[in-house]
Amino acid sequence: MGCHSARLALNSFFAPQGRSIVGDYKPQDLEVKWQQRWNQQRVFESEANPSKPKYYVLEMLPYPSGTLHMGHMRNYTIGDVVARVKRMQGYNVLHPMGWDAFGLPAENAAIKNQTHPRVWTNDNIAEFQRVLRRFGFSYDWRREISTCEPEYYRWNQWFFLRMLERGLAYRKKSRVNWCPKCCTVLANEQVVNGGYCWRHEDTLVEAREIEQWFLKTTAYAEQLLDDLKLLEGSWPERVITMQRNWIGKSIGAKVWFTVADFPGQKIEIFTTRIDTIYGSSALILAPNHPLAESLIAGADPAAHSQRAAKLALMKQSSVKMEDVATAEKDGFFTGRYAVNPFNNEKIPIWVGNFVLMEYGTGAIMAVPAHDERDFEFATKFGLPIPVVVEPPNDPNPQSPPQAAFTDYGVSVNSGPYSGLASADAIEKMAADADAAGFGKKETIFRLRDWGVSRQRFWGTPIPIIYCPNDGMVPVPDKDLPVVLPANPKLTGEGQSPLARPRFRQRQVSQVRRSRSPRNRHHGHLRRFLLVFLSLLRSAQRPGSLCQIQSRLLVSHRPVHRRHRTCHSPPHVLALLVQSHARHRPDFSPRARRSALHPRHGSQGWHRHVQIRRQRGRRPRYGRPLWR
């Protein structure tokens, strides 16, 4: 039924003869009228009110590398409906908005349009805000945040330094996807068309080992897994399953195979099915396993160059973790053999493209009769397929097997363990390996420590100084934020502007005693590093960010409703992290009136930034640490 028909029906049913109760709908007039009234009466502003039940509605913060599209409007309309319904039901609703403003797409868009990423981003933010206000979404705009402003990302740096102090942030060499033209690390999804850069489709992505910053997420793997139980019944099951698989807990055993004719060298494998070890027909290493090169170097000099070339090619075209099951299996024999510690039989050592250093130990025992990927690999390269587990109800299975039997059953051809049920064999064999000193029970996680550094410009500068005498020196808290340079030369190619000599770090108090040159870290932190900080800051009452250390959150927390696309486990991780904080803010009149900085005036940072945007000027904050 159209609007006109509906209006006629309402008039005929409710109105007296000859009178109309529904006039013409003029959204340009009606929407503006009510939006003005909402603003005047501060309907959507949320204050602490213990007499009302609290409700925190949070949508995905938009990424302003472009303009709004229908996906944004769908997401924010759903959140707005929830916020309005809860407000009408008597809840004290907190409904903030902000901008996830850092990242590579914004930098690339700015380069393409020959402008500064800050200008490009702020212009898009202004357009985002204009459209969202015009739609009348029920946001408390006083709580607006923008992650590219120094007053925000100084707390990224502050959190990073606290993690560094507690041993939760560290540097190590890591194998990464590297675009030689972008001169930066690429995420797996940015490697397209069989190994090319998503921006430079004629540039082959290289696998390099470079120094990267990591956060020790593995220290919390068990806790994160346990806390998923708190979400059951209130979160979609597929999201919980996605997160549980991302953490990937596996209970099994580690076993050490000695390398024949290579004194003192052992290869460690992890398996959840130690009961199948008698059926191992090969050891298979990841292409970037630390022993791969040394094993092929001393095996067969005539075949060394061919094997080395094959290894280099496999390192270049490594398989992603999510594609392991479907990727075509490839590999080569190293010319070496390993000794199975249970029966002392020699088995060949191979290198395979489907074995990953990122999971387990970077080496597996291939048990083709009882693992589908191993079966595919053994069939392709003619490896033996010995059966060591049979179904309990099928004592005479087909020989040779036509497919891998991966379920539990009864052990056969397994020496003293033959006849045991799989579960019993696993327990006894793990205990015997531990007693003999060539293995031990172990629990591992698919979750890996989180690489958080990038080599481009538009992101939170890493607050670290490198000094030849003093080594790695954190920037003191009093010198935060370390701000981005004002007018970098951005090309999208070559090294990061943060690594160029003219942006050398100025001396700070901790390294003034050294007369040697000092260089600030020339990378930046990735966008998702402290995504939960947006949840904390959105919830905080407008005022001094300096009070965030002791007053992180409002009483509305935790987030009761959050809308976003369910494709990013780190976002779920962030929500799990923020769900435990129980700090309360300062709602005193003094805190509500406090400005971020004297130059910001009584209306605080948000109004200051808006004025600067209107004037087309870039705000300068903090103490610049650049030459």
Report on this structure:
With 627 residues, this protein is an alpha+beta fold. It has 4 domains: 37 residues, no CATH class; 202 residues, Rossmann fold; 43 residues; 197 residues, Valyl/Leucyl/Isoleucyl-tRNA synthetase, editing domain (Isoleucyl-tRNA Synthetase, domain 2, Alpha-Beta Complex). Helices cover 30% and strands 18% of the residues. The N terminus and C terminus are likely disordered.
Query: Structural class per helix/strand content?
Result: alpha+beta
Low-confidence stretches: 1-10, 502-519, 534-539, 541-556, 571-627
How far apart lie the N and C ends? 67 Å
| Secondary-structure arrangement, i.e. CATH architecture of the largest domain | 3-Layer(aba) Sandwich
What profile does the largest beta sheet have?
7 strands, mixed
Sequence-ordered SSE layout with sheet pairings:
Layout: H1 3-14, H2 27-40, E1 54-59, H3 70-88, E2 92-94, E3 98-99, H4 104-112, H5 117-135, E4 145-146, H6 150-165, E5 169-179, E6 184-186, E7 191-192, E8 196-197, E9 206-215, H7 221-227, H8 237-247, E10 249-259, E11 266-271, E12 282-285, H9 292-297, H10 301-316, E13 331-339, E14 346-352, E15 363-366, H11 372-381, E16 389-390, E17 410-411, H12 422-436, E18 439-445, E19 450-451, E20 453-454, E21 460-461, E22 464-467, E23 471-474, E24 519-520, E25 524-525, H13 531-539, E26 561-563, H14 569-578, H15 589-593, H16 604-615
Parallel strand pairs: 1-2, 1-26, 3-4, 12-14
Antiparallel strand pairs: 5-6, 5-9, 7-8, 9-19, 10-11, 10-13, 10-18, 12-15, 13-14, 16-17, 20-25, 21-25, 22-23, 22-24
Helix pairs in contact: 4-5, 13-14
